[in-house]
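Shape matters. Shown next:

___
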Amino acid sequence: MTNKDIFPINGTDYIEFYVGNSKQAAIFYQAGMGFKLVAYRGPLTGVPDRESYVVQQGKIRFVLTSAISGDHEIAKHVNKHGDGVKDLALWVDDAKQSFETAIARGAEIAYEPYTITDDNGSVTLAAIKTYGETIHTFVERKNYKGLFLPGFEAKENDRKDLDCGLKVVDHCVGNVGWGQMDIWTKFYQEVMGFELLVTFDDKDISTKYTALMSKVVSNINGNGYIKFPINEPAKGLKKSQIEEYLDFYEGAGVQHIALMTHDIIATIERLRENGIEFLYVPDTYYDTVTERVGEIEEDMEMLKKLNILIDRDEEGYLLQLFTKPVMNRPTVFFEIIQRKGAESFGKGNFQALFESIEREQELRGTL
């Protein structure tokens, strides 16, 4: 495919979470989700105001950052939103050019371009604002041979390798307020040069009680690696999951991150063994799923046992499962996905998924 991006994006560079306790969060992602500790920055490396742990699995890189003092901007972010995603960082060829292009096309400045160096070379960073307090950092690392970024030191521990088979970030979903979906879809189209990939209205994503709308934008004129679904609430009889998120997060933000695996059965088995909790779909879901998706390679009884969902589009089929919220507030969660040719997002599973989320909402008293 010809690359017609306004500026080329090579993929997701890292995702940074602002959290209350980065040390404990790092243990969760290692023990629970199979990530490996790879780097550290903080008071022990001469950075007195924050502490960051970098964990990695496959090409997925999470940065977990906490403030050292209560009056720090990071602490204020966590106090308002709870633990959540601050930065969806994008790997680009030229950070300064990407930043200047985005600003010229209407983006707001998060921070100006700057270059950091160490013995392994240099990295240039710049950032723009997006929905809520979320930012996109442009990361240019073509002149860097180090592990992550200058200022970080390699850090490992004695944990055994508990890799769960997670490979890459498939997509990241943002929740925005009433009437904001089209505004942010337009932002990604006009500022970033993304194109509209698919639209879901409240007829596609609804149950008896709740509904939402969603549009998916992607850099499909480039490599198509970046996919950002944008959700907003739709009117229903009761409070939707998007409204619940906006209430608890106190604004727009990243709702979930989809992580791709090449063997979802092995991945879900390991994650369940590690104590990760997933949404529950009744066994009756599997009574008619074969009629809907046709023949698949996987053993249906094993998928049923693990509660894995299946859907099919014109290109193939996919398998997916969603964790319960992994923060203390019902905000951020993860999707585990395996694509067997399918390029869609599991539209056929929306009904079952949303009914499962509603059961959780009812238990929380927010439905």
Observations:
- The chain has nine helices and 17 strands.
- The longest helix spans residues 350-364.
- The mean pLDDT is 92.
- The CA atoms of residues 81 and 287 lie 40 Å apart.
